[in-house]
Design brief:
This protein is an alpha+beta fold and about 1300 residues long. The protein has 45 helices and 47 strands. The protein starts with a strand and ends with a helix.
């Protein structure tokens, strides 16, 4: 370890040096240069015994005690203990500041006590202390009892304290010379809380020396970082100020920037403050501490010297403190920034910019509080400033007066802005609690600040002016004084006329009667210059005032005099004389007759006073009309005269009993008075008017015109439309039989409403449409541009049915032929329009058809909805010209022209029967409910395949809804059929078939033709695949049946086998007549043909067995359907894969799925009416040698040699078979198929080896075998008979052993 003195400087504690010198001069003390109390040294100590040498720097200073410790030393001969010289030393740790010569404090030292050598005593001081301590014998502690303890205390208070203070003075000097960096004055000050008890005397002595220094002896050991001072010169900020997050740093900065007078403000750490207090100097610290009031007294006096941010931060903190003393200062000094002004403002002059009173001040006045929502304009601070006196929501009356006096000048600059100020002032006046009799209110009433409306006769200049409140009338008096007097402008003032503040401001409310009479006179004299509504209001309120005046028994003479001197009564836009008015009527005629309006009738006292007459008579009215005709002749009535006429006719003549005139004078559309017989009333203004027709004037209501003998145009037009050759729009159309009764009978024969959709689908298919779309339109359509009042009920909810094919004239005629049908005698058409179509009367009483966007046909059998229909012609057919569509636009729109291409299709519209319709209906009393419509919808979803399967043309069926509040339809279900599964050959075959059928239908021939193809049907997520076989024409001429009619009926039939489904419903065959009939056949396929059906179209004809219709149906089944069915079976069998060897059990399953399941078999589940057809199928198979019987033969690869055991046992389980198809040849021949039974399973392999054509046994094949036999077809079966043995002996056995041959021939 080495020790090197790095620096040595003379100490600057002159007082201590001088005292020490004086003591040493006495001569009784010999020091022998023990210490150098004149100099302080910085020493370097290097410990190089460690791996890494450690270097320490210390500022050392030692001195002698000059007080109590020196005195005790001098009395050493008097005491039993002898003490050494009172020496005290301080060692402060330092560290190098980089490569410079500057130093910095090395903080964090835990101080230790030395007695020239270290003692094991921690002092709790931030430096080491050395002294001539009295220690215990083991040098582990200071002596704490007796004289030695007193010595240690004296040494700590004297020598060590002096050395410590001198050391601090040296550190201060180094800091001032720039040799010591990062040093705060309190860096090495002791924290009393941390110092050991033995060394507290030194701490207390130090703080006492600091606190009690005065004048020249003061220790300038406090610093703010720039200047140093003693405790009597420095000030400390209160901890609340210093630790305040908002202004703590700003406060120090502010005082530092204030110059010498405030540079003594020092930051005092809390532990030093606490050390002073613990050492007994609380009051001194308190006296030297600056609290908030003192702090802000200084701040507010020096606001101008601060930057804006610091100033505002300090002021904001003062506001937030909510301290009474600080609040006093806030109110006293101008300290708040304002908008548009550099000067600060006192709080009481401040105006909240968002407050109620803000509108009363200008920005230039420097009164508006400036800031943002994060500083002065935050809600809490605005509330604080308001509490301190800032003007915000209220204003003292003296300030209100001051602001009111500024209004006239502001009015000249910006009236709109000024009005808002006046409104605010009035609102503030309401809040005033000052007595209404106060002289301040009188002062306000004399200031011209109140907006007033000038008299109407003076408004050619300015309508609104400022007046003294005492000079104007209340707005509620306006109508009785406004011609000559000023009234409060309540619109600009935005105050109710009854508000008490007006009374407080001395506004007038009770004008004299002469003023009111002048009001009426001026209104009459200048009536052309004012709005009639204004004149009416003036008259009404004036009459009310005068009536009240008379009821109060006041003098009536002024009123009577005025009433007789000029037109006094205001009636509909003009003043009239009293003598021309009657009370008890509701009309007027000018200038002949006037009726007192009902609104004025309540002023009876006034009318009695001035003498109003009673009522007018019919003769007065007729004479007035004649006079009008005489005056105007053939000229059009002027607007004024027309109004006179309307008043007489409508309010007078029309309301008198027995006033009906058959030939009354009525103005035409040009206003020329004409005889009512020559006019027509236009009750359909959207319709074109024929030439030569004179219409009554538009102001004449329909009921009045009809009352006086005018015919309506709509009645006239519709009447003409129903006359053949007269109307440009319509020709005669309708069902001409006994309609309502017959229709009722027909729909009774159609008990199920579900069949309605089938009939409409059939109609569309017969019309060769490819799509049909049902739309349930739930909306109520407009009833303005319609045929007439009767038609309004038809504009409601309806079922709309669109198909993309237009009707021919023949179709339209067929619709009218009730029960017979327009398709009678038409080859290839299934339905009967007249009969089937009438099922729609289940839903509607007024069905209509729009086809090709060319014809609109309406049927009204009840004669309740169409104008002009008759029993002979209960309907109309209109030509849809553009003019017609415009005239009856609301009718046309119900056919959904925006949703469908009406020009290329046909739209049926069936207005649903409502309760009001049912009340009038002779067809049905049942309304169509939502349940009924959902039942119709269910008809589509229950059997979607059946609806579309056999249709000739329809490939898509759709059902949609349009809800009441919607415009577009919502799709509910779509059923489509596509020929995706059909091969190119199949498609070509179907196209050729369709072409052939169309050619035959057009030529009247019936040459037979058939086709087979595949299709796919989808309905939502349900899909199915089908094979369809169709037939057209007679197979043999003898099959043709004379049906007793004048046309030839050609057989048409089809069969449909379901190949696959995506849903699990079990399949049950049904009979179809294009559309499914309700009854099930029990067959494994669907059968379609042009059967004769009953009147309800729900079943095949069954009334009598000998009828031609029954014979026709039976002929179809036996002669057409049976051979067609045999062909279908042949197709299904030949399309099955048969070249893949398969184990026999699996092969049987494949046969069942692909072919056998479609064979018809007579059973309990099959309707008896089809039994003969089934037998004929099997006969057809046999007679035509159709290969539809499955035979199997095993495949050996390599061939399996049978053993002796195999000859007599079951077939080999690993054998695989292939299938072939065989016809029913002659029995007991080598080529015929042999049906096996379950008993033959054990010898099946052996039988197969013989080369026999074996039919594998299964339950279905057994049924087929029985049906062949039931049909009279000979069936070959395996039997161990002589014939069988003969067969076995007759064939060759090239690969069979003699043993096996003998086994069969024995």
């Amino acid at each position: 370890m080495t020790r090197e003195v790095m620096n040595s400087t003379a100490v600057s504690n002159d007082k201590l040096i001088q005292e020490t010198k004086n003591i040493l001069k006495t001569g009784d003390i010999t020091c022998h240069n023990i210490i150098d109390y004149n100099r302080a040294q910085i020493v370097k100590i290097v410990q190089d015994h460690q791996v890494t040498p450690q270097t320490q720097y210390w500022l050392l200073y030692s001195c002698f005690g000059t007080q109590d410790s020196m005195r005790m030393f001098r009395r050493r001969n008097e005491n039993e203990h002898v003490f050494s010289l009172p020496i005290g030393g301080i060692a402060v740790p330092l560290q190098r500041e980089g490569q410079t010569e500057a130093w910095s404090p090395d903080e964090g030292l835990c101080g230790q006590a030395f007695c020239f050598l270290p003692l094991p005593i921690e002092t709790g001081l931030p430096f080491h202390v050395n002294g001539t301590f009295a220690v215990t014998s083991n040098r582990k502690a200071l002596c704490e009892r007796g004289v030695k303890s007193d010595w240690n205390k004296a040494l700590l208070k004297d020598a060590l304290t002096s050395a410590y203070i001198t050391t601090l003075l040296e550190l201060k000097k180094m800091t001032q010379n720039g040799k010591l960096k990062s040093y705060f004055f309190y860096t090495f000050w002791p924290n009393r809380e941390r110092v050991s008890r033995e060394f507290l005397p030194m701490v207390e002595s130090f703080y006492s020396a600091i606190a009690q220094s005065v004048n020249s002896k003061s220790l300038e050991l406090f610093s703010n970082g720039q200047t140093w001072g003693s405790i009597d010169r420095v000030k400390f900020l209160h901890p609340e100020i210093e630790e305040n997050a908002a202004v703590g740093d700003i406060a120090k900065k502010v005082f530092f920037n204030m110059g010498d007078s405030y540079s003594c403000v020092v930051s005092l750490p809390s532990w030093i403050r606490e050390s002073f207090i613990q050492c007994g100097f609380k009051e001194i610290i308190k006296q030297r501490t600056i609290c908030w009031p003192e702090f802000y007294d200084v701040v507010f006096k020096n606001l101008r010297t601060m930057d804006t941010h610091s100033r505002n931060s300090l002021v904001l903190n003062a506001i937030d403190l909510n301290d009474r003393e600080v609040d006093v200062l806030l109110k006293r000094y101008p300290c708040i920034p304002t908008q548009g002004c550099e000067k600060l403002q006192v709080v009481k002059k401040l105006v909240n910019p968002s407050g109620k009173v803000a509108c009363l001040y200008e920005l230039e006045e420097g009164r508006f509080l400036e800031g943002t929502a994060s500083d002065f304009l935050s809600p809490k601070r605005i509330q604080r400033l308001s509490d301190l006196g800032m003007l915000s929501e209220r204003l003292p009356l003296e300030d209100i007066i001051e602001r009111a006096e500024k209004i006239p000048r502001a009015w000249q600059q910006d009236k709109s802005k000024c009005c808002k100020r006046i409104q605010c002032l009035v609102e503030l006046m309401k809040d005033s609690t000052l007595d209404v009799n106060s002289q301040q209110w009188d002062s306000l009433s004399q200031i011209p600040f109140l907006p007033a409306i000038a008299p109407l006769l003076q408004q050619n200049k300015n309508a609104t002016v400022l007046k003294k409140p005492c000079e104007v009338y209340s707005e509620r008096c306006r109508d009785v004084v406004s011609m000559t007097e000023f009234t409060v402008d309540h619109i600009n003032l935005r105050i109710h006329s009854y508000d008490t503040v007006l009374k407080t401001l001395r506004v007038q409310t009770n004008p004299p009667v002469q003023t009111v009479l002048q009001q009426l006179l001026k209104a009459h004299q200048h009536s052309s210059a004012f709005e009639k509504a204004l004149l009416h209001s003036i008259a009404y309120m004036s009459y009310e005032y005068l009536n009240t005046h008379l009821l109060e028994q006041k003098d009536p003479n002024p009123i009577i005099a005025h009433a007789k001197s000029y037109p006094f009564i205001f009636i509909e836009e003009r003043f009239v004389n009293v003598r021309s008015v009657a009370r008890n009527m509701e009309f007027e005629e000018k200038p002949y007759l006037y009726v007192l309006p009902a609104i004025l009738s309540k002023f009876e006292r006034l009318w009695d006073c001035i003498g109003i007459s009673k009522q007018f008579t019919k003769e007065h009215y007729v004479a007035a009309l004649e006079e009008l005709k005489t005056v105007n002749g053939s000229r059009s009535l002027s607007t004024e005269d027309l109004n006179k006429y309307i008043a007489i006719l409508m309010k007078g003549l029309n309301k008198i009993k027995d006033s009906k005139l058959e030939n009354c004078l009525i103005p035409d559309e040009k206003g020329v008075l004409t005889s009512s017989r020559e006019l027509r009333f236009n009750d359909s203004p959207w319709m074109p008017v024929s030439g030569g027709i004179r219409l009554s004037h538009e102001l004449i209501p329909r009921t009045v015109a009809v009352h006086f003998g005018v015919m309506t145009t709509r009645h006239h037009t519709l009447k003409n439309c129903l006359v053949s050759g007269f109307s440009p729009f319509a020709r005669e159309f309708g069902q001409t039989e006994k309609l309502t009764v017959r229709i009722k009978n027909i729909i009774d024969a159609y008990p199920s409403k579900k069949d309605i959709l089938k009939e409409l689908i059939q109609n569309a298919d017969d019309a060769e449409a490819t799509e049909i779309h049902f739309v349930w339109d739930k909306r109520q359509h407009s009833t303005q541009k319609i045929f007439g009042k009767k038609w309004e009920l038809v504009q409601g909810p309806a079922l709309c049915v669109y198909n993309n094919k237009t009707f021919s004239d023949t179709d339209l005629r067929g619709i009218q032929q009730l029960g017979e049908g327009g398709k009678q005698g038409t080859l290839g058409r299934t339905g009967k329009y007249g009969l089937g179509f009438n099922s729609v009367y289940h839903l509607s009483d007024c069905p209509s058809i729009l086809t090709g966007d060319k014809w609109l046909c309406i049927s009204d059998p009840n004669l309740k909805f169409v104008e002009g229909v008759t029993k002979e012609s209960p309907g109309c057919m209109f030509s849809l010209e553009d003019e017609f569509k415009k005239s009856f636009e609301d009718v046309y729109h119900t056919f959904l022209p925006k949703m469908f291409a009406l020009n290329s299709g046909t739209m049926f519209r069936l207005p649903l029967r409502t309760e009001k319709m049912a009340e009038k209906s002779e067809i049905s009393i049942h309304t169509v409910t939502e349940f009924d419509m959902k039942e119709l919808y269910s008809a589509l979803t229950e059997d979607p395949e059946g609806l579309i399967l056999f249709l000739k043309h329809i490939t898509k069926i759709q059902f949609s809804e349009i809800n009441k509040s919607e415009k577009e339809p919502k799709c509910c279900v779509v059923i489509e059929k596509k020929y995706r599964e059909c091969t190119e050959k199949g498609i070509k075959s179907k196209e050729n078939f369709d072409t052939h059928v169309q050619t035959c239908l057009m030529s009247g021939k019936a040459e037979p033709c058939k086709t087979i193809y595949r299709m796919q049907i989808s309905a939502g997520n349900k899909q199915s695949k089908w094979v369809i076989e169709e037939h057209f024409g007679f197979l043999k001429q003898e099959h043709a049946i004379d049906n007793g009619q004048k046309y030839l009926k050609v057989p048409q039939a089809a069969l449909a086998a379901c190949l696959a489904r995506t849903f699990t419903n079990s399949f049950t065959g049904r009979a179809f007549c294009s559309l499914p009939l309700p009854e099930e056949t029990g067959l494994p396929v669907h059968v379609n043909a042009n059967f004769e059906v009953d009147s309800s179209r729900r079943d095949l004809w069954k009334e009598d067995s000998d009828s031609l219709k029954m014979k026709w149906n039976q002929s179809l089944k036996v002669n057409i359907i049976s051979p067609l069915y045999a062909d279908l079976l042949l197709h299904l069998c030949t399309t099955m894969k048969k070249d893949t060897p398969t184990a026999l059990p699996f092969l049987k399953d494949q046969l069942q799925v692909s072919c056998l399941q479609y064979f018809p078999c007579i059973s309990k589940g099959v309707d008896k009416g089809w039994h003969e057809m089934i037998s004929e199928v099997y006969r057809s198979v046999s007679q035509r040698d159709l290969p539809v019987i499955p035979i199997v033969h095993s495949q050996h690869d390599p061939p399996i040699k049978p053993t002796a055991h195999a000859v007599l046992s079951s077939y080999h389980p690993s054998l695989k078979y292939i299938v072939n198809w065989c016809s029913m040849s002659k029995s007991d021949s080598a080529d015929c198929p042999y049906f096996t039974t379950g008993d033959h399973d054990n010898i099946f392999e052996i039988l197969d080896d013989t080369g026999m054509k074996l039919v594998p046994h299964s339950h279905k094949i057994e049924q087929i075998r029985k049906n062949f036999k039931a049909a009279g077809v000979n069936v070959s079966e395996i039997k161990m008979s002589d014939s069988f043995r003969t067969f076995m002996a007759s064939i060759r056995w090239p690969h069979t052993s003699t043993t096996r041959k003998k086994a069969f021939t024995r």
